[in-house]
Structures are given as C-alpha cells and as structure tokens.
Amino acid sequence: MATSDDRYGPDVLANNPHTPRRRAAPDVAGDVGLVVECVDSGWCGAIIGWEKTIQGWAIQLEDRHGQTRVFPAHRSAFLLDGEVVTIVRPHQTSPVDPHPKRTASGSTAVEGARARVARSSRIWVEGRHDAELIERVWGDDLRIEGVVVEMLDGVDNLVAMSTRFDPAPGRRLGVLVDHLTPGTKEARIAAEAMARNPHGVLVVGHPFVDIWQAVTAQCAGITEWPVIPRGQDWKTGVCAALGWGDDTGLAWRQLLARVRTWTDLDPRLLGPVEQLIDFVTQD
C-alpha cells in the first residue's frame, strides 16, 4: 500500500523519478531557404516549398546539385545544425522563387545560412592557388556542408600522409591532384594511396599542368594557354609568354579576380571537385 510520501506509488516501474526525461524536439518554422537534414535518410537540402499529401503536410527540399525530394513533416524528423527538430508550416508559406539566387558553383543560394560545424573529413589540394580557386567557386557550398580544404604542398608524401590521417567511417579524405594522367608519377602515387585505404581515401585530378589552366582562356582574356617547354617553371613561362610580367603572385591574383562562377572553369575540373565534395560528405 502506497503512503503519501511514497515517491514510486503502487507500481515502482510506472513512475521512476530517476528516469531521465527526454526533451521534446522543438518546433521550427519551415521557411523557404532553411537548410535541414532528414534524420532517417541523411538527405540534406534547402526548403523550397510545402505541399499537402494524403499523409499530411510535407516539405520539398533541394540539394546543392538542384535535385529535389519531398519529405513528410513528421515530428522529430529533421536535423537543424545537428539538433533534432520538428519542422512546422510557417504562418504564411513563402512562394517558391522561380528564379532562386545561385552560388558561384551553380547551387541554390541559401540566404542567412550558417556554416556547419566542420566535419572530420577533409579535402586536400596541392597548393595555395588550388585552395583559393576552390574557395572562389565552391566556398559557399563547402561552408554549408562543413568541409575544410587544406593544402598538401605536393603529392610525393601523399601515401604516408593519407595513412596518418587515419580514415574511418565519417572521416574521409578527398584529394585533388594536378596533372593526374595515366602513366605519370602522380597517377602511381594516387593509386597506392587509395589501395591502402580503399574506403576512406579518394584521389581524383585534372589533366592540367597547373591549376591556372583550369580557368578558361576566354575568362583569362587570352586566345589559349601557351605550351611551356619541360624543365622551365610553368608559371614564369606563362607570364613571359603572355606579357603578364615577372610577378607570378600578382598575375594569379589578377587571374583569380576574373573568375566569377563555375562557367569560368574548364569542365575537366568541375567534375572532380564535385566528386570530392560528394565523397567527403557521405557519413
């Protein structure tokens, strides 16, 4: 028989005061442009609209590739900045913009989006110019995805460095290599690095001698990129051939300033970079 000071009552399993209370997922207004992630599938995208289904209201998400999917707006069904939330209809659903703003990479721009906490996964590039060009075009996407780009400073030590990186599930390494063509030293090193870590390391590349060549000749304001004889410093030779002076740093800054969007880059760079972003954002 329970007494007035009996905290447990007649059934000790029915009301255990020591059982932690689970906090309910907060409601968040599903305004157009809000970036969320589906808890069940891990699919991440920006809200572009609402629609009514036989199961109730659902939100339509668009990812950075422009692909769209519809998800039921169930309770605790989404993640926002890593926290489980319930997406609810705003008081007045904003209409879908038929001409949404785009990032430099061509993805849908998300106004007011906060950068995601950095993932354990990384993208490595060979040098500073590579990193600056990727930031120029894909910077907004990388911040939303929480991807950090780091400089490798050459590929000679890639095998040892990628092994020390210690790839694991949720900790992947993507590497962008210059002049990655069959039979080259770079190709052999890339193959060995991936063979040692087949599920955690992806090495892709472009055929250009230097990342400068990934900028289209039209964007650079030239007819074509000159061919520089082997053994000669490529950047110095290019500047001399094009009359860009002998300050390669200044030449690069002026070239980079001309790049506005992905359309200013050679498609042979676009594909590999997108492939790396997809690879390192797989949890």
Topology readout:
Layout: E1 27-29, E2 35-38, E3 44-53, E4 56-62, E5 68-72, E6 78-80, E7 83-88, E8 122-125, H1 128-145, E9 148-151, H2 158-165, E10 173-177, H3 185-196, E11 201-205, H4 217-220, H5 234-242, H6 248-258, H7 267-280
Parallel strand pairs: 1-7, 8-9, 8-10, 10-11
Antiparallel strand pairs: 2-3, 2-6, 3-4, 4-5, 6-7
Q: How does this model look, in words?
A:
This protein is α/β, with parallel strands linked by helices and 283 residues long. It has two domains: 1-99, SH3 type barrels; 122-215 and 259-280, Rossmann fold. The chain contains seven helices and eleven strands. The strands form two sheets. It has a seven-stranded mixed beta sheet with strand order 1-7-6-2-3-4-5, with no helix packed on it. The chain has a four-stranded parallel beta sheet with strand order 9-8-10-11, with helices on both faces. Strand 3 (44-53) and strand 4 (56-62) form a beta hairpin. Helix 2 (158-165) packs parallel to helix 3. The N and C termini lie far apart (53 Å). Residues 1-5, 7-22 and 92-96 have low confidence and may be disordered.
List keywords for this structure.
283 residues; alpha/beta; SH3 type barrels; Rossmann fold; 2 domains; 7-stranded mixed β-sheet; 4-stranded parallel β-sheet; 7 helices; globular; disordered N terminus
